[in-house]
Design brief:
heterodimer; A: 280 residues; mainly alpha; 2 domains; 9 helices; B: 462 residues; alpha+beta; TATA-Binding Protein; 4 domains; five-stranded antiparallel β-sheet; 34% strand; binds protoporphyrin IX containing FE
Amino acid sequence: MIDTTILSWVTFIYFGAFVFYLFRMILGREFWGKLAGWLALAGLIAQSVALIIRWKASYDLGIGHAPLTNFYESLIFFAWTVVFLYLLIERRLKNRSIGVFVMPVAFLIMAYASIAPGISNRIEPLIPALQSNWLTSHVLTCFMGYAAFTVTFALGIMFFVRKAAAHDSSGVRVFIHLLPSESQIDDLIYSCAALGFIFLTLGIVTGSVWAHYAWGSYWSWDPKETWSLITWLTYAVMLHVRMMRGWRGVRMAIMAIIGFACVLFTYLGVNLLPSLHSYL
Amino acid sequence: MSKKKSGIWFFFASVRLAIVLLLLIAFIAMIGTLFPQREAAVELVGRIPPGLFSFLQKMQIFDLYHSVWFVLLMGLLAVNLLICSLDRFPAAWRRFRLRPVPREPDAFKDLPEENLFYPESDAKKAADEAASLLKKKYHSFQQADEAGSVYLCAQKGRFAHFGVYMVHLSVLVLICGAVIGSVFGIEGSVKMLEGETASGINLRNGNLTMPLPFSVRCDKFTLERYKNGAAKLFQSDLTFIKNDRVIRSARLLVNHPVDFEGFRFYQASYGPVPGKKATLVLLREGGRRDIMNVSTGYTFELPGNEGTFQVLRVEDNMMQMGQAIKVAVRSEKEAATFWVFREIDRIKKVVPDVFEQVPVFNPGLFRPYTFSLLGIEEKYYTGLQVNRDPGAPVVAAAAVLLICGLMIVLFSYARWIWIRIDQVEGRVRISIAGRSIRNNVGLKREVRHLLAKLKDNLENPK
Ligand code: HEM
């Protein structure tokens, strides 16, 4: 299957982009950053092509559906949204230093999709409950949310790296001066979390509408739903403590990491619990 | 507000309480995912000490999302939201009503150097350009001239003050909708065979049944499968009957519910019913050939009193070799029990001497008859979910409000912009200042953008 071949190449391309972002950090030359940016973009385009091929292939098999319907496809799409969002942010901020923190995440997701045991990369037909137009909008919005939270998490890690490097006077000066200032990172953490919050809200709402059509109840407290609510509440708390209690810096970075842990549990952890959502 | 606010008011208006409540709700929700809920709780019986089980049951751990704890927290959250919003809304309203005035010296205090520039053109032209820029970007502006200086101001995004209130109101509406649903809503289900008519449903809470004000008949149930055996489609053709008159016929599919008289029908499930029918061919050597439909327990006299024939089992997939039935034939002389496989030819291809090895797989064991199985027809029931939820439209409205509110909160913000054109040491000076409630990063970018635009317009006149 050509699409899975392309996708395994994309995995390496993302790894390459990460390595070049790292070179930029260590050597302090913008050349590497540009190269990394172009490489990530090339990877994203290749990945989009693979997704389109896969989409078309499902129609050729007579079971046409968007490539968002099993665990493998959701991981691939997750990586796609992370890189997509990152490149948008890179363009907007004109700062390439977040790449070192985001690209490894994208690479790991792709690698996990292709090597983890028990993940089937076949194009599978849809069971009746999944045959719904809400499927696409639900998965799309959820994963945009997850991607924004992933970038938030990467920014949280970046915050700690910056803080640690600032105290360490040994010789990694270049490193620090390429990173945004602590207050800039803090603003970014907030913006990304807010963006993710909107998308997660949309994801929960579209999911509820769909459940309302499919199972007759917009909310049934199944573990995945419940965990998405927990995640939502966690980020709501994060927005409130910043707005009203003035939390900044380290505390927000910690919140970013805790929130991401909730996202991961919503996405992967609940599969350990019995659930309606067991197919994703 | 002139009203004297008590300690209770402050308690409920506090964001600290809100944070604690949100965290507690998240915590309880998490506990609920760790313990099996409702019907599923029975699986713990016998696996944990009975004392512990009944303690957990008393604490409502097995129905946490409907427990006193949860309802209490939700109630507190609602009060918190209400009081907090009431407490803060007047200030937001004042902020909304407040208009910037052009002459606002405070705005220009300690203005950083980057917010200033000195154009080549004269003050009049600079003021005109600034005015047309504000007009273009902010639709309207105000101007004041004073002692040779020109002051302009404009504003945008006043409605952003209300975004947060929309979000919070939507949560309140959501809670209301959920309450309406749980008080007035009905959740039931019914299982039917083809041709059956139901005039009541089994309620989800407790083992009660509830009569419907009409009856519903399942005319046909269709199940299609993919090659891999997974269900591709299942649907029921329903007919709604009231006072012995057919009111409506409808096809019910997954994801395509049917509404009737305030109830909503969902194709929720299906399942096999016992009593599968097998189609069996009976061949007497050199003689007649009979086809008959049989099911488990079916007994019958062979023609000419040659024996009694009984069906013991009907299997969909006997030892991975496909459909088969187990029959017993008894005559005065002999008795034989054996299996009749549908795909006996295929089995024989794989294991040519299967009859020698396993005599009971030989469908000709009882001479002079040979049996063959044409097929097994599985019968399915269709499982319908039948709901009525008057709260659902309220919840839907809340969702729309929530999303609109969030968009406003996070993508727009209120800001005021001032431009001053004055003369310092014989040179024209332009200063741009701004003020925003909660987006200083965005404001800075906007002011920088305005500055660049104005500079460009002055230096490169069209
Ligand atoms: C599930 C419940 C809640 C949600 C989804 C929610 C959502 C939000 C959002 C999105 C914001 C804007 C944050 C920002 O600008 O970054 C906000 C602000 C705020 N929230 Fe909530 N909130 C909830 C519950 C509460 C409660 C119970 C209170 C009660 C005290 C509260 C008090 C506030 C206050 C005072 C603000 C700041 C308003 C302002 O900027 O003037 N929130 N909330």
